[in-house]
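agent> Task received from the user: take the single chain below, predict its 3D structure, and emit structure tokens. No templates, no multimer pairing.
agent> Plan: (1) validate residues, (2) run structure prediction, (3) serialize to tokens, (4) report one or two observations.
agent> Step 1 OK, no nonstandard residues flagged.
tool_call: predict_structure(input=
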Amino acid sequence: MSAVICRRFLVSGKVQGVFFRASTARQADQLQLRGWAKNLPDGRVEVLALGSLAALAQLGDWLRQGPPRARVDAVEARDEAAEAYAALADFRTG
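)
tool_result: status=success, residues=94
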């Protein structure tokens, strides 16, 4: 079994009001990731995801493109302590 990694992504650009969170949730479900995608007051979308390193890399690649109506200008990523989010059972939007 591969180690569970936790990564926080901050996505900026035209990423609110374009189905970014729902599309991210679909991608995360396909990749068997847990976590969330939520809008931030500054116009960015925060994505926190837990799973395998390979799945997180695939999600990161997808986030750099986003859904068709989005325009992604930048994606910041940093690893977090997975233990702090171990109770997350699925992927949600907020």
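agent> Step 4: summary for the user.
The first strand starts at residue 5 and ends at 14.
agent> Done.
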